[in-house]
Amino acid sequence: MIEIQLNGEPRQVAADSTIADLITSEGLGNRRVAVELNLEIVPRSQYDQQPIEAGDRIEIVHAIGGGQETS
Amino acid sequence: MNQDNRIPKDTPLVIAGKTYRSRLLVGTGKYKDLEETRLATEASGAEIVTVAIRRSNIGQKPGEPNLLDAIPPDRYMLLPNTAGCYTAEDAVRTCRLARELLDGHDLVKLEVLADDKTLFPDLVQTYTAAEQLVADGFKVMVYTNDDPIAAKRLELMGCVAVMPLAAPIGSGLGIRNPYNIRTIVENAEVPIIVDAGVGTASDAAVAMELGCDGVLMNTAIAGAQRPMLMASAMGKAIEAGREAYLAGRMPRRRFANASSPLDGLFF
Fold it and tell me: B202 to each of B197, B208, B209, B249, how far by Cα in Å?
């Protein structure tokens, strides 16, 4: 296992995981999300080829209701 | 009927080359649930709808309701916003994530805030982010102060629409500085859309009477006692204000001016 930061939280994942594996294991497989790996966008087409390494900082985001507010 | 008495046909709102029928733009925050969001958005008649980008809840249950089911991207022009960003860097990251999330969609609403009491924009950060986003191919609709100098500068940087505040976000205070809004409109060659601070239908009408091209609002609808009814009222106010602007209002006079003729009085 290796440790990464996922959405600001420490997370243990298998050493040979890809972004696609991470999305599935987090229960987000059928959700519309976007992924940032160490401040770079990972295109959806590359999720199953993009390996995860120890210390990676990953953000997974989606769209929510919002206007001008910060909340 | 005399040609001159016909109601002139309005030109449509055009943003980044795309034409819109509605001049009301709405946000999707602060509703009680997604059903209310869907119904109020429909009642408003808006075509451009803002959404926020946030961290997914990791480990959430599959099948949890999704905003994009209530506001389908094939029916509305989604406008991802950078609400909650306090630096240019965070705003640019948010827009890039939004573009990936929405399959290459490049229309974004840039707002970089300075302070959480006023939610006024940080213009230095806004300029920096606008420059980077325009260079990266985004079509940027930008939130700014009711400052004609800043508004023109953002237009010259390549923003596709400039969105001055009427009053602080969520305040419902209405147009606080109509003279500046008017000056911004007169100087502009891109659409000017009042964004933030509208409280009720008359505020939206005033913005349109000043010559604004549209109004973006969220809390005025979501925070009303009956959001669907307020959404409908806002749609009408925007249309009424627009027609009044095109009609050209009568001049203001200090004293009365009889509207019945004085000639032919029989006493």
Answer: 12, 10, 10, 16
Best of B56, B100, B105, B171 to disrupt the A interface (most A CBs within 10 Å) is: B56
pTM score, two decimals?
Answer: 0.90
The catalytic site residues of B sit at 109
Minimum Cα–Cα distance from A71: chain B residue: B84
pLDDT digits (tens, 9 = 90+) for B93-125: 999 999 999 988 999 999 999 998 999 999 999
State residue B267's pLDDT score.
86
Q: Please enumerate in sequence order all residues whose Cβ is within 8 A of that of A13, keeping only pairs 6 or more positions apart, or say none.
A: A1, A2, A4, A21, A22, A25, A52
Chain B residues whose beta carbon lies within 8 Å of the beta carbon of residue A42 = 100
Which residue from A36, A44, A69 is facing B218, i.e. has the nearest CB? A69
- Reported as type and span, the H/E element at residue A21 is helix A19-25
Alpha carbon of B37: minimum distance to chain A alpha carbons (Å)? 8
The amino acid occupying position B62 is P
Round to whole Å and give the CA distance between B252 and B36.
42
